[in-house]
Amino acid sequence: QVQLVESGGGWAQAGGSLRLSCVASGLPFSTFHMGWFRQAPGKDREFVAGISWRGTSTAYVNSVKGRFTISRDNAKNTAYLQMGSLKPEDTAVYYCTADPDRYVSARYWGQGTQVTVSS
Fold this sequence. Notes:
Layout lengths: L2 E5 L2 E4 L4 E8 L7 E7 L6 E6 L6 E3 L7 E6 L4 E6 L8 E8 L8 E2 L3 E6 L1
Parallel strand pairs: 2-11
Antiparallel strand pairs: 1-3, 3-8, 4-5, 4-9, 5-6, 7-8, 9-10, 9-11
């Protein structure tokens, strides 16, 4: 079965950095678009970043543009989210996603990893 396993979450101070990783198994990784969503307490889940299967196209929610970078290594079946200049409002559970058609959609979800940013 398909598994997306996130790691790298944790605690950071405002202005700091974290890198999330997502290792995929059970799917042809290099043919799937990958993405990251997040859900903060009391808020709806939102799209954060997406990357095409070749890694040639990316998209970001406006609130993270210039601070977060999504990337992938198809040889390692791994997607990454490098997060910088973190803000308390980035605090959320971050989910890795995979979709065969669009990187703003999500057919498969990981279990999520908590990111907490303190001021």
